[in-house]
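Lecture 7 notes: from sequence to structure.

We start with a single chain of 400 residues. Read the sequence below before looking at the structure.
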Amino acid sequence: MLDRLTDYAECLADPDRWAIATIVEVSGSVPRPAGTSMAVRDDGRTIGSVSGGCVEGAVVDAALECLRTGEVELHSFGYADDDGISIGLMCGGDVRVLVQPLRTIPSGILSELALPGRAPRLVRELPLDDAARDGGVLTFGRRLTTEPSARTRVLLPTEAASDLDDRVRAALELGGTHVVEIADRSQPECPVIRRLLVESTTTPARLVIYGANDFSAALVQAAALLGRHVTVCDARPVFATHARHPGAQEVVLMHPAEHLAQETDAGRIDARTAIVVLTHDPRFDLPVLDRALRADLAYVGAMGSRMTHEKRMQELRAGGLGEEHLARLHSPIGLDVGARTPAEVAVSILAELILVETAARAGVSAASPRTLREVSGDVHDTRRVCAAEPRSPEGAMAWM
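Now the structure, written as tokens:
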């Protein structure tokens, strides 16, 4: 439910009337990922969507029923047959949805979730298939609500209790939505005795743009839609203005190399940071790229023609950068989608950034991009997106 907390302000303020449906697990091709949620009020009003329409009606009915009974329920939806008689996903995937009345979450936790400027975290107990439980809320393994009834209470063995904090903490630090299963290793079958839904948000990943122009203005707007924390830096006061970059969190008037050094020394540049160089001036872009390519960053890209790129590579080599560092540079920048306008180029750059980040999470090199029509398998199969394949040197546009 953390995916749209800002939209749930009225729900958190009036928890007795609302239930939250959260996608817990997915398999196959599904419209929305785990962690996607929808709020349902007792009069049928909804906020959000968990499937884009396939099972929305059934989820609403389940939420209204859980509001009536106060029970926490776990629902599974699979493939819907072609005649439309069964309720399910026409895309062929499977999804499990946790439906929980907001009133079952302690008010103190709801207040904490609503605090501005915080990265909220929430751990909820999932009902087991063979014994429904009360859906209690936990933080790092410590129960914050009353214990379940004696009929459903499960006592953790020592080994499960000892590793609960570490596993939950690791999932929280990773961010996103995860299911942590706790097994009873004292029994030969090691049965699962607890299943925890771990949700956490992380601070937005940074996108630092060096060079203020029409392309940076378009990139700021597009990146804001992806939830990036965007910084624009340029040494020219006439271009480095908030008026030209209304979606940026920061617009800095400074020499780009000085800014990057300052941010790095302050610990504000990390492995989730993407740097895009749009300066077109070797006095600015070379020192930035030299430092950025030596760091562990999510993405480093630079705009320029192929001639500009080759000259830039020669200068960086002369400055001591090895081939392993130069291989991290995405230049000419962006995917080859035929983009021409600044808005189109911004989409191309962000598409490449998403591709590179997805591959990095899988621990492989990014594959050459293809259209979905050209490939087989599930639409959302990241294994295909992350297949390690060589990219053609002609696979990017040469924007001036």
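Confidence is low (pLDDT under 50) at residues 81-88, 130-135, 138-156, 388-400. Keep this in mind for problem set 3.
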